[in-house]
């Protein structure tokens, strides 16, 4: 490989809000160009003469890679690789490395925050105070909305990797019993319950699995109906795992006790979404920010630096293609 160590970060502000230390990353290259955002039409032009591209969500397709002959390394500032044509990268001899496990503490605490908010009816009580209902109460407290204790309840986990395991530990700290579910498309395991056995037993369900052809909409009308009346659903994984219209219907019917999601099937939801309707009760939607603590984003910078330096030293890290 040539001595070219020029790099371009195509969507820098998707990671750095001005609160991160980029010095080690900068020092890994002869030149690092930071682009706040990049349109599809700008990608090829900006990558001319660069040997390294850093991208969080900007698409790098086969046509783009063919038009950037000096490109030798793609650093994905995330775990997901769906924004890169891995086959094309391989054909052009371009190494692709991602980041892994950086957001576990942030996403795990967000998951428990959502579950606690549902169990304590936090949104409803905040709204009631804002409307002056506590101020008008005849006693010292307001108990208009049923509060559920997590202790003694059963949590179903779909996905028990690093993140799912972290959520399980937090749930157990609250006194919950944790059961693991069998993911479709995976080999059966003795410690994983089939969905039809898992769902009727649990008081809450959290999702921590990838989105693929086996898991798309694997939680839909039938599966939600199998859950106990009053059960909670929390999704901090991928929006397409749950049939969003089915979830909206289950909440409107009163079957579920509440649901919370940090992800939607299309993001940002510029064309709307079934879960953004204003008549859905006991639903919390957060804007895919579970991963976004400063600490987690700084870990990404650290891994990008490690990946770049490893590549230049002939020992590439976290290689996905």
Automatic annotation (TrEMBL):
Segments crossing the lipid bilayer: none
SUPFAM superfamilies in alphabetical order: Formate/glycerate dehydrogenase catalytic domain-like, NAD(P)-binding Rossmann-fold domains
Boundaries of every D-isomer specific 2-hydroxyacid dehydrogenase NAD-binding domain copy: 112-290
NAD as UniProt keyword: yes
InterPro entries: D-iso_2-hydroxyacid_DH_PdxB, D-isomer_2_OHA_DH_cat_dom, D-isomer_DH_CS, D-isomer_DH_NAD-bd, NAD(P)-bd_dom_sf
This protein's UniProt keywords: NAD, Oxidoreductase
EC numbers: 1.1.1.29
Gene3D superfamilies reported for this sequence: NAD(P)-binding Rossmann-like Domain
Similarity comment: Belongs to the D-isomer specific 2-hydroxyacid dehydrogenase family.
NCBIfam families registered for this protein in UniProt: PRK06487.1
Protein name: Glycerate dehydrogenase
Organism: Pseudomonas fluorescens
């Amino acid at each position: 490989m040539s001595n070219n160590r020029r790099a371009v970060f195509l969507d820098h502000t998707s990671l750095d809000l001005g609160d991160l230390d980029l010095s080690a990353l900068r020092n890994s290259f002869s030149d690092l160009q930071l682009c706040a955002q990049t349109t599809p039409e700008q990608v090829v032009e900006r990558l001319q003469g660069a040997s390294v591209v850093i991208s969080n969500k900007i698409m790098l397709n086969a046509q783009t890679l063919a038009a950037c002959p000096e490109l030798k390394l793609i650093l994905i500032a995330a775990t997901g690789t769906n924004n890169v044509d891995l086959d094309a990268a391989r054909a052009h001899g371009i190494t692709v490395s991602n980041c892994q496990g950086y957001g576990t503490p942030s996403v795990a605490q967000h998951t428990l925050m959502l579950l606690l908010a549902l169990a304590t009816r936090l949104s409803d009580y905040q709204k009631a105070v804002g409307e002056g209902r506590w101020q008008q109460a005849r006693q010292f407290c307001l108990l208009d909305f049923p509060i559920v204790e997590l202790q003694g309840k059963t949590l179903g986990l779909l996905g028990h990797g690093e993140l799912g395991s972290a959520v399980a530990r937090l749930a157990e700290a609250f006194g919950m019993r944790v059961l693991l579910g069998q993911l479709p498309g995976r080999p059966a395991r003795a410690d994983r319950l089939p969905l039809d056995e898992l769902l009727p037993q649990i008081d809450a369900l959290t999702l921590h699995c990838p989105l693929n052809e086996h898991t798309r909409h694997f939680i839909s009308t039938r599966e939600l109906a199998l859950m106990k009346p009053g059960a909670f659903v929390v999704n901090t994984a991928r929006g397409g795992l749950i049939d969003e219209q089915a979830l909206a219907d289950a909440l409107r019917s009163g079957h579920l006790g509440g649901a919370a999601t940090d992800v939607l099937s299309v993001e940002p939801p510029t064309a709307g979404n079934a879960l953004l309707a204003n008549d859905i009760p006991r639903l919390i939607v957060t804007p895919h920010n579970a991963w976004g603590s400063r600490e987690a984003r700084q870990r990404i910078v650290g891994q990008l630096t490690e990946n770049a330096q490893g590549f230049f030293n002939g020992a590439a890290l976290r290689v996905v293609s």
